[in-house]
Structures are given as C-alpha cells and as structure tokens.
Amino acid sequence: MEISNQTKIEHLLSRAGFGATATQLEDFKGKSPEKVVKWLLKDADKYESLLVIDEKNTEVIKKKALRNLLEMKGASPNEIKEKLKEARETEKMTLFWHGHFACRTRRPLAVQLQNNTLRKYALGKFGDLLLAVAQDPAMLQFLNNQQNKKNSPNENFAREVMELFTLGRGNYTEQDIKEAARAFTGWTANLQGEFVFRTNQHDSGSKTFQGRTGNFNGEDILKIILQNPQTALFISTKIYRYFVNENVDNQAVKDMAKRFQSTNYDIADLMEYVFKSDWFYRSENIGTRIKSPIELLVGLQRKFSIDFQQKQSVLFVQKSLGQILFYPPNVAGWSGGKNWIDSSTLMTRMKLPEIIFKDSEISFKTKDDGDADTEHLSKRINRMQAFIDWNKLQNQLLVGNQNLVETLEKYLLLRPLTSQQKEMIIKKIGENNTGIEAIKTVAQAITSLPEYQLC
C-alpha cells in the first residue's frame, strides 16, 4: 500500500506529538516528513520551566514565557491560548519519560519540580536526565532512599535504577544491588525540594559493582551503568515500543542502541534517527498503536480545540480511563498497549465523543484507583461542559465543495473507513448533510469508532 505524504506527516505528529491540528496540516502541506522532523526538534529547543508554586501558593520559579505572553501588548486571549498550545508541542517525550521514571508523591511542589526536570532533559543527554532524576527529591522519597544510610542500607532505590530505568531485569546481580545501594547512601532531599548529600550518612568504603572495584559514589554507579551496552539496548527497546510498534523489530532496535551509545546517549539524535527511518513509515506501524488515555484526551482537545469550562473534567476522564498524570499505578509505570483496553474502558472511550460534543449526561463511573482524594469526582462531574468553536473548524477544513465524510476521515483517522462504515455515517447525517450539525454528527461518528482508538 502506497502511503501518501500527508498520511506520513499525520503519523509522525500522532507519534511525536498528539496529532496534527487543522492549522498544522495546512502549514505542512507539500513539506516532507524530514522537514517536519526538523521543525519538531527545533521547537523542542524552546524549553521553558513551567510555573512552580509551593503548597502555600507562593511563586518559587518564574515562568518567563507565560509572563511575556501576558505582557504582550494588544494580545487577545485567543492569541495567548494559541501560544500556550505551541509551548506544549513537544511534551510527548516528557510523557514518555514520566512513564519510564514512574513516581508518585502527594507533595505538589515535588511533583512540579520533577515535571520540570523531565521537560528540561527530555531531549538532552540521557546521562544528564538519569542523574537529575536519581537526585530528584520526589524519586528519592518514592523509592525509599531517604532511609538508605551507612550501616543500614536500603536497596529499593538501587534495584529500581537498574531494573526499570537502565539495564533491565537479568542484567545485574544481587551483589550489584547491594554495592550500588551502599554507593547511594546519603542521597536525600530537604523540604524545599532540593537534593542534599549527607556525608555522615554515606558509606565511603570500597565497593565492587559490575566487575569493577573502587570507592564508588552514586554518580560513579550511574556512569558504569551507562558504559554497559545493555542500557542503550533497554532504552531503545522501550522507545521503539512507545513510538513505533509494540512488536519489536530486533534489528531496528539494535541499530538504534548502537547509535544511541555512540552519541553519548543523545536523545534528540536518537529520536531524529527514528522519525527519519524508512521503517517508521511502514504500513504495519501506522494506525496500529492503541492510544493511551492521555493521548486520546489531548488528541481530541487538539483536533477540535476543546476548552473544558470545568477543569476537573480533564481529571475525571483520566480517572475513568485509567491513566492519571503524576499518579502512575506503581514504580513500573503504566503497562500500555492492550492493557489500556477492557470492556469498561472501551465503552467509555467510545461514549466520550458524544458526551463532549453534545454535552450529554455522563453515564459511566470512574475507575477505582484507591485514591480517596479523587473519589469525589464521580459525584461532582455529570457533564463535560466543553466549548468547541465548530464554525472555526468548518472554515479551516471545509473549503469549497469538499466531501464532509472524506474530509473528516482524513483529518481524524490514519487508515481509511470501510465502505460499510461510510454508509453508516452517511445514513446518520441524512438529508441535512451540510452545516455545523452535520459536522458534529460525522465527527462524533468517526471518533466513536474503534479505529479512532489507534494512532
């Protein structure tokens, strides 16, 4: 099957981002995927820390970008909103690392600081990201390294660093865990969200790790781990499964790992290599990956410029579909793939467009995640109260005498509708096949299909 240039670009933006907006499709018309990749990586250089506030709601870190936007002379609220959307363009890599370095904490300050850490290093050198996360206060507390002290080592942090963050299970020994735990003693944090190395709690004795012996500290352990080719292979495999296909092409991953290690773990270089590879655009890799709840929700928001009037609605959807940001189920993160779908979540996913587009009453319940703080949501949210500028969407997409079904099909799906699906949608429109109501009907019909759950 020959794949069109537009399909390639939409595939790229659905994997590297959260789908192409109508404006982007117009901007990128006639451009090659290679040029779009270049734009994506250039856009990623515009990193700015997000606003961070402590529990007392006082500002800790200024977000210069937001301040500048608010000070734009003559800028309308819509212009500011568009600029903020652009600032979120490269958040997909941050979301990947959020699942890789899964962490849970009830301290809002720690959550925000960790998120900024992931955003800062998301496309930098993996070694810098690994060290920053290993010294992150939220992570140190989540993995019990606050209790890791000389003469009383706690092995939890050291074990997960190797098993989940770098080498993968089976590529280290129990002795490696014990020795690494000794090296990480004294790594802790203060209440202000700052990393603190407590020398009086550190084991400064000689240690043997991965066949090497020396007076190692935590940084030394991480450097030795990075020198092991297994780390590059482990990370490359996870990136392939997340951005390309759950079914791994072993040769492609080996090539990725070799390049990754040869560039001193340059994440941006690796992602450019993936997104420019011929195999990334193979038919079996397009429209075959199940969207995570966040990808589904953000994708709908982007495609239709949805503005939820009640901000808790976003959290309600996350909870209903089983993926709450900053609240992974465990240290291994979200399983992903087919694990996103069960009989309950599939029905919720397919019902969601009607609830959003038609402001219907919510007929499903949130999933029980054991968090009492979010249980009240199902009682407070009975409608999404979502605003969509359908006139704007009509003006952007339907120029001239374009076929409504075919236009929205190309805009919303990476694989074509079957003839039976098209007939079903045309019947739903009836004779009133123009105007806003027709657009709503077709949009709801397509986004309610099982195929829309794929990217």
Task: Give a short synopsis of this structure.
The chain is mainly alpha-helical and 455 residues long. The protein contains 23 helices and eight strands.
Kindly describe this structure:
By secondary structure, this protein is mainly α. Strand 3 and strand 4 form a beta hairpin. The chain has helices at residues 5-16, 22-27, 33-44, 64-70, 77-87, 92-100, 108-121, 126-134, 137-142, 156-166, 174-183, 218-227, 229-243, 250-262, 267-276, 293-304, 312-321, 343-357, 377-380, 390-397, 404-412, 419-429, 436-447, and strands at 52-53, 59-61, 187-189, 195-197, 207-209, 212-214, 307-308, 386-387. The longest helix has 15 residues, at 229-243. The model is unreliable at 58-75 and 83-88 (pLDDT under 50). The strands form four sheets. It has a two-stranded antiparallel sheet. A two-stranded antiparallel ribbon has the order 3-4. Among the domains are: 111-227, no CATH class; 293-387, no CATH class; 390-453. It is elongated.
